[in-house]
Amino acid sequence: MSVVSRIFAGGKTNAERIPEIERITLVRVDNPVKQYSAFLLCLVLSAVIATCGIAAESSAIVIGAMLIAPLMSPMIGTSFAIATGKRRQAARGLLVALSGAAAVVAVAGVTSLAIPAGVPLVGNGEVSSRVSPRLVDLVVAVASGAVGALAVGRDDVFDAIPGVAISVSIVPPLCVAGAALAQGAQAVASGALLLFTVNFFAIQLSCNAVFFLMGFAGHAQDGSSAKARLLWYATAVVGTVLLAVPLAAASNEVIEQYSFERGAAQSVREWLRESSYEPVSVDASGGAVVVEIAGEGTLPDLDDLRILLRESKVPVEDVKMRVTRQYS
User: Fold this and answer.
1) Mean pLDDT per 10-residue run, the chain (328 residues)?
2) Matching Pfam families, A to Z (predicted)?
3) Which helix (H) or strand (E) holds 117?
């Protein structure tokens, strides 16, 4: 056993824990009624709670739903079954995970229609944070998946499971997608489903790596499982890389917008430096700069601001000013 494997496994891989890990992750189903009913009930209730939390714009309620949701278990179980060479169980785990995801979308759609005020999609922070995934979301999902694999693979890291449930967003974006589809907002639903897909592939990627490094591949049932394992690893890598491309583009847009807003704010401060006015707010979105200032006396020339914005390389088509007069 290599040094790396001993570090990840915390010593020698304990083969006696494999049945326990398989039950936790639904790889081994000894009592189908008990295990699947618990999974389904918790999944449905977490979807209802998360949808209500999104409608109420309450992060606390959404976090509570994330702690209840069991959807990450079959995701991790799929990777674990692949690592230990159990292809049929891996396929079943993948089916359970995808079926569970579809169930969450359906439950969220029905719940959103049952809520009297519905789920507001515009101006809702719980929605907007889950429809525009960025590269940072991919990084968080990879790290969370790695911790999740460590938590089920080692008996001394299990306490990290609640933190993993909170850090990686699995059920909430599915609930946003369900609510959006119920309202016919396909663009919002697509963004939320993209975030879920990113999280799914990232979790598979990191769980595959961690279980391999922990040495569980050495407990594979037969040699033919190595080919299936490599195929699944390649699928996870390719899927993650392909998803990283649009996320990188989205992240670049965010960085550019931040640069524009910072340049606009600096230009406004320079523009007002010799006047008795102070900046209240600067909005550089939508191709226009909207400046709100407060003070008294002679207004500074707006053309001077346009020159400063051009010098700061802020792409702007129009400049608007709102003034709040303050009299001493």
Assistant:
1) 75 79 90 94 96 94 93 93 89 95 97 91 88 89 92 80 80 95 92 93 92 80 69 88 85 74 86 86 79 85 84 80 73
2) DUF389
3) none
Number of domains composing the chain: 2
Instruction: Specify whether 84 is located in the same domain as 33.
Output: yes
pTM of this prediction?
0.79
Same domain for 210 and 64: yes
Do 267 and 133 share a structural domain?
no
| Of 155, 189, 221, the domain-final residue | 221
Of the candidates 164, 193, 191, the residue with the CA atom closest to the CA atom of residue 75: 164
Question: Would 227 be classed as within a structural domain?
Answer: no
Which of 155, 191, 137 minimizes the C-alpha distance to 11?
Answer: 155
Q: Which helix (H) or strand (E) holds 187?
A: helix 186-213
CB 104 within 8 A of CB 171: yes
Residue 192 near residue 176, CB atoms below 8 Å: yes
Retrieve residue 203's tokens. 């979790």
